[in-house]
Input
Amino acid sequence: MPAVIDGAQEIRIEIEDDFDLHKIFECGQCFRWNEGADGSYTGVAMGKAARIRVENGSIVITGSADDWRNIWSAYFDMGRDYRTLRRQVCIDSYMRAASDFGAGIRILNQDRWETLCSFIISQCNNIPRIKKIVETMCRVFGNPIELQGETFYSFPDAGKIAVLSEKDLSPLRCGYRAPYILAAARAVDSGELDLDALSKLNAQSARRALMAMPGIGPKVADCVILFSLRIGSAFPIDVWMKKAIAQHYPQGLDPAVFGENAGLAQQYMFYYQRSGMADTP
DNA sequence: AAACAGGCCTAAA
DNA sequence: TTTAGGCCTGTT
Output
C-alpha cells in the first residue's frame, strides 16, 4: 500500500505505477489543467482546485489526506494497475511502440456533466479554444475557489446552466454549440438524462442514450463514456484516430480486440499519433 | 483572404 | 448506409 504522508498544505503519495502528469493532462481527455513553469499542474476538478507535481517517485498534491482518499484517488484512477493494462493492449509491434511512448497515461474519472459539456464544446474546435470557452463558462457561472491566494472557478452545475438562455451563453462565444449545451444541461438537471445510471450500462446502451441528445454524436458520446462513465471499452474515433488507423491498420481495426481496455488503447494511439512520432514506422 | 479546426445535423443518393 | 455541405468563431 502506498504511504500517504499528510502535511499541512499538501500530501505526498508514493507511486510505483505509471503516472506521468504531462501525458495524463495533455493526452486530450481534460481541459482544465495547466502546466506551470516548474512542471507542476494546477487545475480544478470535482469542485476542488489543486496543484500537483511528481517528485522522487511520489505524487505531491495540495489538500488533505481525505481529499486524496475521497476525490483524487478515484479521479486519477489509482485503483487500476496501468503497467499491467499497458501490456494487455500490446497486440502487435505498433501497439507496443504506442503504449511504450504513452507509458504514464492514466484515464481520468472525471465529473460526468462537466465531461459531457466539455466534449460538446470540443466539436470542430481546437484545444486552446475549447479551454478558453470552458474557462469562461466557469468564470461566469461557476463558484470561486481559493488556492494559495489565487482564485479559481468550479465548473457550474447543470442546474445553473439549465435555467439560462442562448443569449446568456453569448459571453462564451461558443457559437452553434450553445443550444446543445442548454439542451444537455436541462436534460441532466431534470433527470431525463441520468449520467450516473448510464455508467451502469454497457457502452452500446450508454452511447444510444447519449446520442439521442442534440449535438451529441458518436465521438462525443464515446469520450463521455470513457472519461466519465468509467466504461473502458469505449473507443472514441476522431480525425487523429482515423489517421492512425489508416496508417497502421489499413485493413481496419476492431476495437473489440482490446476488450475492456479499448479506451486505454485508444489513448495510447491518439497520443502517439498526435506526437508525430507514429508517422515513421 | 480563404481555409480549416479533436463533429454533428440534415438532405440526398 | 454512406456522403456533402453548412454551421459559430478564432486563427493562420
